[in-house]
Specification:
Helices cover about 70% and strands about 0% of the residues. The protein has a two-stranded antiparallel sheet. It is built from 15 helices and 2 strands. Helix 7 runs antiparallel to helix 8 and helix 8 crosses helix 9. Strand 1 and strand 2 form a beta hairpin. With about 300 residues, the protein is mainly α. It is globular.
Length: about 300
Protein backbone atom coordinates (compact mmCIF):
# COMPACT_ATOMS: atom_id res chain seq x y z
CA UNK A 1 0.00 0.00 0.00
CA UNK A 2 2.94 2.38 0.45
CA UNK A 3 3.92 2.17 -3.24
CA UNK A 4 2.43 5.00 -5.31
CA UNK A 5 2.04 5.51 -9.04
CA UNK A 6 1.17 9.10 -10.01
CA UNK A 7 -0.02 9.68 -6.44
CA UNK A 8 -2.30 6.62 -6.34
CA UNK A 9 -1.80 3.19 -4.72
CA UNK A 10 -0.21 0.63 -7.04
CA UNK A 11 -2.01 -2.70 -6.45
CA UNK A 12 -0.23 -4.32 -9.41
CA UNK A 13 3.16 -3.87 -7.72
CA UNK A 14 1.71 -5.05 -4.39
CA UNK A 15 0.26 -8.28 -5.80
CA UNK A 16 3.42 -9.02 -7.80
CA UNK A 17 5.42 -8.54 -4.62
CA UNK A 18 3.03 -10.89 -2.77
CA UNK A 19 3.81 -13.62 -5.31
CA UNK A 20 7.54 -13.10 -4.76
CA UNK A 21 7.21 -13.18 -0.96
CA UNK A 22 5.27 -16.45 -0.87
CA UNK A 23 7.60 -17.94 -3.50
CA UNK A 24 10.59 -17.08 -1.29
CA UNK A 25 8.86 -18.47 1.81
CA UNK A 26 8.10 -21.70 -0.07
CA UNK A 27 11.76 -22.13 -1.03
CA UNK A 28 12.79 -21.45 2.57
CA UNK A 29 10.37 -24.11 3.84
CA UNK A 30 11.72 -26.60 1.29
CA UNK A 31 15.25 -25.96 2.60
CA UNK A 32 14.05 -26.34 6.18
CA UNK A 33 12.32 -29.66 5.47
CA UNK A 34 15.30 -31.03 3.54
CA UNK A 35 17.60 -30.11 6.43
CA UNK A 36 15.32 -31.85 8.92
CA UNK A 37 14.99 -34.96 6.77
CA UNK A 38 18.72 -35.08 6.03
CA UNK A 39 19.61 -34.94 9.72
CA UNK A 40 17.32 -37.89 10.43
CA UNK A 41 19.04 -40.15 7.88
CA UNK A 42 22.64 -38.90 8.23
CA UNK A 43 25.16 -41.14 9.94
CA UNK A 44 26.28 -39.99 13.41
CA UNK A 45 29.66 -38.73 12.31
CA UNK A 46 31.56 -35.47 12.11
CA UNK A 47 30.32 -33.15 9.41
CA UNK A 48 26.83 -34.67 9.21
CA UNK A 49 25.14 -31.40 10.15
CA UNK A 50 27.24 -29.47 7.63
CA UNK A 51 26.21 -31.90 4.89
CA UNK A 52 22.55 -31.55 5.91
CA UNK A 53 22.86 -27.77 5.76
CA UNK A 54 24.52 -27.93 2.33
CA UNK A 55 21.81 -30.25 0.99
CA UNK A 56 19.09 -27.93 2.33
CA UNK A 57 20.62 -24.81 0.78
CA UNK A 58 21.11 -26.58 -2.55
CA UNK A 59 17.49 -27.80 -2.54
CA UNK A 60 16.17 -24.32 -1.78
CA UNK A 61 18.28 -22.68 -4.47
CA UNK A 62 17.49 -25.23 -7.18
CA UNK A 63 13.81 -25.00 -6.33
CA UNK A 64 13.85 -21.21 -6.49
CA UNK A 65 15.55 -20.96 -9.90
CA UNK A 66 13.44 -23.62 -11.61
CA UNK A 67 11.59 -22.13 -14.59
CA UNK A 68 8.04 -22.55 -13.31
CA UNK A 69 8.80 -21.42 -9.76
CA UNK A 70 10.63 -18.29 -10.92
CA UNK A 71 8.07 -17.38 -13.58
CA UNK A 72 5.14 -17.61 -11.14
CA UNK A 73 6.98 -15.64 -8.43
CA UNK A 74 7.35 -12.44 -10.47
CA UNK A 75 3.76 -12.02 -11.69
CA UNK A 76 0.37 -11.52 -10.08
CA UNK A 77 -0.80 -15.08 -9.54
CA UNK A 78 -1.95 -17.34 -6.72
CA UNK A 79 0.29 -20.34 -7.42
CA UNK A 80 3.08 -19.42 -5.02
CA UNK A 81 0.54 -18.87 -2.24
CA UNK A 82 -1.03 -22.27 -2.97
CA UNK A 83 2.40 -23.89 -2.97
CA UNK A 84 3.25 -22.18 0.31
CA UNK A 85 0.07 -23.61 1.89
CA UNK A 86 0.96 -27.13 0.69
CA UNK A 87 4.57 -27.02 1.94
CA UNK A 88 3.45 -25.40 5.21
CA UNK A 89 1.04 -28.30 5.66
CA UNK A 90 3.93 -30.76 5.21
CA UNK A 91 6.03 -28.80 7.71
CA UNK A 92 3.19 -28.73 10.25
CA UNK A 93 2.60 -32.46 9.78
CA UNK A 94 6.29 -33.00 10.60
CA UNK A 95 5.83 -31.07 13.85
CA UNK A 96 2.71 -33.09 14.66
CA UNK A 97 4.36 -36.46 13.96
CA UNK A 98 7.50 -35.52 15.90
CA UNK A 99 5.71 -34.12 18.97
CA UNK A 100 2.01 -35.04 18.89
CA UNK A 101 0.09 -32.68 21.14
CA UNK A 102 -3.20 -30.83 21.26
CA UNK A 103 -1.55 -27.62 20.06
CA UNK A 104 0.16 -29.37 17.14
CA UNK A 105 -3.17 -30.93 16.10
CA UNK A 106 -4.85 -27.52 16.17
CA UNK A 107 -1.97 -26.04 14.15
CA UNK A 108 -2.35 -28.78 11.54
CA UNK A 109 -6.09 -28.06 11.32
CA UNK A 110 -5.50 -24.30 11.03
CA UNK A 111 -3.05 -24.69 8.14
CA UNK A 112 -5.42 -27.10 6.37
CA UNK A 113 -8.45 -24.83 6.84
CA UNK A 114 -6.65 -21.71 5.62
CA UNK A 115 -5.32 -23.69 2.66
CA UNK A 116 -8.85 -24.75 1.72
CA UNK A 117 -9.95 -21.11 1.83
CA UNK A 118 -7.10 -20.22 -0.52
CA UNK A 119 -7.42 -23.00 -3.12
CA UNK A 120 -9.65 -25.98 -3.83
CA UNK A 121 -6.57 -28.04 -4.70
CA UNK A 122 -5.86 -28.44 -0.96
CA UNK A 123 -8.78 -30.89 -0.81
CA UNK A 124 -6.36 -33.42 -2.35
CA UNK A 125 -4.37 -33.33 0.91
CA UNK A 126 -7.25 -34.88 2.89
CA UNK A 127 -5.70 -38.40 2.64
CA UNK A 128 -2.40 -36.94 3.92
CA UNK A 129 -4.18 -35.33 6.89
CA UNK A 130 -5.89 -38.63 7.73
CA UNK A 131 -2.63 -40.57 7.37
CA UNK A 132 -0.74 -38.13 9.62
CA UNK A 133 -3.43 -38.47 12.28
CA UNK A 134 -3.67 -42.27 12.14
CA UNK A 135 0.12 -42.74 12.27
CA UNK A 136 0.45 -40.70 15.45
CA UNK A 137 -2.89 -40.95 17.23
CA UNK A 138 -5.38 -43.52 15.82
CA UNK A 139 -8.06 -42.59 18.35
CA UNK A 140 -7.92 -38.94 17.39
CA UNK A 141 -8.18 -39.95 13.73
CA UNK A 142 -11.24 -42.10 14.49
CA UNK A 143 -13.03 -39.31 16.37
CA UNK A 144 -12.11 -36.76 13.70
CA UNK A 145 -13.53 -38.96 10.91
CA UNK A 146 -16.71 -39.66 12.91
CA UNK A 147 -17.26 -35.96 13.58
CA UNK A 148 -16.80 -35.10 9.90
CA UNK A 149 -19.04 -37.94 8.74
CA UNK A 150 -22.00 -37.00 10.94
CA UNK A 151 -21.69 -33.19 11.10
CA UNK A 152 -21.36 -32.33 7.44
CA UNK A 153 -20.87 -35.31 5.10
CA UNK A 154 -24.14 -37.11 5.96
CA UNK A 155 -26.27 -33.90 5.86
CA UNK A 156 -24.75 -33.07 2.45
CA UNK A 157 -25.61 -36.56 1.19
CA UNK A 158 -29.20 -36.18 2.46
CA UNK A 159 -29.46 -32.78 0.78
CA UNK A 160 -28.22 -34.16 -2.55
CA UNK A 161 -30.61 -37.10 -2.21
CA UNK A 162 -33.55 -34.65 -2.19
CA UNK A 163 -35.06 -35.64 1.15
CA UNK A 164 -38.33 -33.83 1.87
CA UNK A 165 -37.98 -30.65 3.92
CA UNK A 166 -39.34 -31.63 7.37
CA UNK A 167 -37.57 -34.99 7.36
CA UNK A 168 -34.33 -33.49 6.07
CA UNK A 169 -34.06 -31.11 9.02
CA UNK A 170 -34.88 -33.87 11.49
CA UNK A 171 -32.26 -36.18 9.97
CA UNK A 172 -29.65 -33.42 9.66
CA UNK A 173 -30.14 -32.30 13.27
CA UNK A 174 -29.93 -35.88 14.54
CA UNK A 175 -26.77 -36.45 12.50
CA UNK A 176 -25.10 -33.31 13.93
CA UNK A 177 -26.01 -34.33 17.49
CA UNK A 178 -24.38 -37.72 16.89
CA UNK A 179 -21.36 -35.98 15.37
CA UNK A 180 -20.82 -34.02 18.59
CA UNK A 181 -21.80 -36.75 21.05
CA UNK A 182 -20.00 -39.81 19.67
CA UNK A 183 -16.42 -38.40 19.63
CA UNK A 184 -16.81 -37.03 23.18
CA UNK A 185 -18.24 -40.33 24.37
CA UNK A 186 -15.66 -42.62 22.79
CA UNK A 187 -12.38 -41.18 24.11
CA UNK A 188 -10.60 -38.16 25.55
CA UNK A 189 -9.43 -37.27 22.03
CA UNK A 190 -13.01 -36.37 21.08
CA UNK A 191 -12.73 -32.77 22.23
CA UNK A 192 -9.49 -32.33 20.26
CA UNK A 193 -11.16 -33.77 17.15
CA UNK A 194 -14.11 -31.40 17.47
CA UNK A 195 -11.70 -28.51 18.05
CA UNK A 196 -9.84 -29.39 14.85
CA UNK A 197 -13.11 -29.48 12.93
CA UNK A 198 -14.09 -26.06 14.32
CA UNK A 199 -10.70 -24.59 13.38
CA UNK A 200 -10.96 -25.94 9.82
CA UNK A 201 -14.45 -24.43 9.57
CA UNK A 202 -13.07 -21.09 10.81
CA UNK A 203 -10.40 -21.20 8.09
CA UNK A 204 -12.97 -21.92 5.38
CA UNK A 205 -15.11 -19.05 6.74
CA UNK A 206 -12.73 -16.63 4.98
CA UNK A 207 -14.90 -17.25 1.90
CA UNK A 208 -17.36 -14.86 3.55
CA UNK A 209 -15.01 -12.04 2.51
CA UNK A 210 -15.74 -12.63 -1.19
CA UNK A 211 -19.12 -10.81 -1.23
CA UNK A 212 -17.55 -7.91 0.69
CA UNK A 213 -14.70 -7.66 -1.82
CA UNK A 214 -17.18 -7.80 -4.66
CA UNK A 215 -19.01 -4.78 -3.20
CA UNK A 216 -15.88 -2.65 -3.53
CA UNK A 217 -15.22 -0.01 -6.14
CA UNK A 218 -14.15 -1.31 -8.58
CA UNK A 219 -15.89 -4.60 -7.71
CA UNK A 220 -14.25 -8.00 -7.77
CA UNK A 221 -15.92 -9.57 -10.79
CA UNK A 222 -14.46 -13.07 -10.50
CA UNK A 223 -17.76 -14.94 -10.42
CA UNK A 224 -19.70 -11.88 -9.18
CA UNK A 225 -19.77 -13.14 -5.58
CA UNK A 226 -22.03 -10.32 -4.37
CA UNK A 227 -25.08 -12.41 -5.40
CA UNK A 228 -25.94 -15.82 -3.94
CA UNK A 229 -25.73 -17.53 -7.34
CA UNK A 230 -22.39 -15.87 -8.04
CA UNK A 231 -21.06 -16.84 -4.61
CA UNK A 232 -22.02 -20.48 -5.20
CA UNK A 233 -20.43 -20.29 -8.64
CA UNK A 234 -17.09 -19.19 -7.12
CA UNK A 235 -16.86 -21.60 -4.19
CA UNK A 236 -17.91 -24.62 -6.28
CA UNK A 237 -15.29 -23.91 -9.00
CA UNK A 238 -17.95 -23.11 -11.57
CA UNK A 239 -15.41 -21.13 -13.60
CA UNK A 240 -13.24 -24.24 -14.07
CA UNK A 241 -13.75 -27.65 -15.59
CA UNK A 242 -14.77 -30.16 -12.94
CA UNK A 243 -12.07 -32.40 -11.45
CA UNK A 244 -11.90 -35.69 -13.35
CA UNK A 245 -9.35 -38.23 -12.03
CA UNK A 246 -7.50 -40.20 -14.68
CA UNK A 247 -7.93 -43.97 -14.77
CA UNK A 248 -4.64 -45.49 -13.62
CA UNK A 249 -4.91 -48.47 -15.97
CA UNK A 250 -5.06 -46.42 -19.15
CA UNK A 251 -2.80 -45.09 -21.88
CA UNK A 252 -3.76 -41.56 -20.88
CA UNK A 253 -2.23 -42.09 -17.43
CA UNK A 254 1.01 -43.39 -18.95
CA UNK A 255 1.10 -40.40 -21.29
CA UNK A 256 0.63 -38.06 -18.32
CA UNK A 257 3.51 -39.76 -16.50
CA UNK A 258 5.71 -39.29 -19.59
CA UNK A 259 4.70 -35.62 -19.77
CA UNK A 260 5.50 -35.16 -16.07
CA UNK A 261 8.93 -36.78 -16.46
CA UNK A 262 9.74 -34.52 -19.43
CA UNK A 263 8.58 -31.47 -17.48
CA UNK A 264 10.74 -32.47 -14.51
CA UNK A 265 13.81 -32.80 -16.71
CA UNK A 266 13.13 -29.41 -18.30
CA UNK A 267 12.87 -27.79 -14.88
CA UNK A 268 15.95 -29.29 -13.22
CA UNK A 269 18.02 -31.01 -15.96
CA UNK A 270 17.98 -34.79 -15.97
CA UNK A 271 20.86 -35.62 -13.55
CA UNK A 272 19.53 -33.21 -10.92
CA UNK A 273 16.00 -34.57 -11.29
CA UNK A 274 17.25 -38.12 -10.70
CA UNK A 275 18.93 -36.98 -7.47
CA UNK A 276 15.46 -36.60 -5.94
CA UNK A 277 15.17 -40.41 -5.82
CA UNK A 278 18.15 -40.78 -3.47
CA UNK A 279 16.01 -40.64 -0.28
CA UNK A 280 14.09 -43.70 -1.55
CA UNK A 281 17.39 -45.61 -1.73
CA UNK A 282 18.16 -44.67 1.91
CA UNK A 283 14.62 -45.24 3.21
CA UNK A 284 15.91 -47.94 5.57
CA UNK A 285 17.61 -45.19 7.60
CA UNK A 286 14.32 -43.47 8.41
CA UNK A 287 13.07 -44.27 11.90
CA UNK A 288 10.07 -43.34 14.02
CA UNK A 289 8.53 -39.91 13.27
CA UNK A 290 10.83 -39.39 10.28
CA UNK A 291 9.54 -42.56 8.61
CA UNK A 292 5.93 -41.55 9.30
CA UNK A 293 6.54 -38.13 7.82
CA UNK A 294 8.29 -39.66 4.79
CA UNK A 295 5.14 -41.76 4.16
CA UNK A 296 2.97 -38.64 4.45
CA UNK A 297 5.16 -36.75 1.98
CA UNK A 298 5.12 -39.66 -0.45
CA UNK A 299 1.31 -39.70 -0.35
CA UNK A 300 1.24 -35.92 -0.88
CA UNK A 301 3.50 -36.21 -3.95
CA UNK A 302 1.33 -39.04 -5.30
Amino acid sequence: GFVRYRGCPNPAWATNFMSAVFGALSCGLVALLVARAARSVASPQAGAHAKSFAAAVAAGIFFSISHTMWSQSVITETYTLTLFCIILFLATSLVWLSRPSRGAAFGLAAVFGLGLAQSHIIILLVPCLILALVLSNPRLCREFCLANAFIWILPCVLLRAGLANPWFWVAATSSCVLGFALPLRLSASGSTALGMLAIIAAGIAFYAYLPLASEGNPPMQFGYARTWDGFQHVITRGQYERIMPTTVLSLQFLDQLRWYACLLCQEYICPLALAAFLPIVRVSRFRGPSLKWWCTCLLAFF
